[in-house]
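Extended Data, panel c. Modelled sequence:
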Amino acid sequence: MTTSTILPSYDQFLEFRAVIIEAIALAWRDADFLGELRKDPKQALKDQFGYEYPAQVNLKVNNNTSTWLPDLTGGWKTNQLNALELVLPPAPAPDQMTVALAAYNAKHLNPISATER
């Protein structure tokens, strides 16, 4: 299994997509799994498929964000766009902003974790 990083590699992203397809198929027919997936997606994927989410990013399940309309749209109609959530940290004192931004970039936006350096 891949190691945890802040940002997944392309191969890790493809692996994630494959597991998500399996998870959707199972959630459609297994209410217990659907409940676990909603409650704790990372743990549900690990328990059911042995998949460990490689990125240090929160994973959240959004329900009912599209509608299956094959006769009208030829597939799915999106009711709500997928989104990344940006959580803004509070501003430090003005004389510390440059250092704070550099530290935020080093800690939160670098694709290589500190343990891999």
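The longest helix spans residues 10-29. This feature is highlighted in the accompanying rendering.
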